[in-house]
Amino acid sequence: MPARTQQLTGALEIREGLEGLTPGRIMTLYRRAPLRRPVDDPRRVWQMFENSSLVLTAWHDGRLVGIARVLTDGVLYSYLCDLAVEPDVQGLGIGRRLIEAVLERCRGTELVLRDSDISAGFYARLGFERVHNAWMRRA
Fold it and tell me: Is the pTM of this model over 0.85?
């Protein structure tokens, strides 16, 4: 992703928890980001967030511009389920700020995530390493 010359005017606020979120806001951000998640059922989307260990949101001038959602045991592993940033502010450091906040709160654990090749460069620049020793099965 090319660097942007645009900058955020005003403060970026990182919040922990579900304050200010609604299923509709989450679904809109995921569709716009685009983050490929099943977002057709508002009840299911809200359950994803209620059942998460950590939810961080980024707000700029009262507007939701980013989300990070984590599952963790708090000791060994943390799984970054979702990282989404509004397209018009991607490349301005919001994703980086959310990742830094996740790393701070999940200190001492291995932070693992699944990603497409679209964002691989972003994660590599933040010090993530690609691993090939994983398995997945849908329940």
Answer: yes
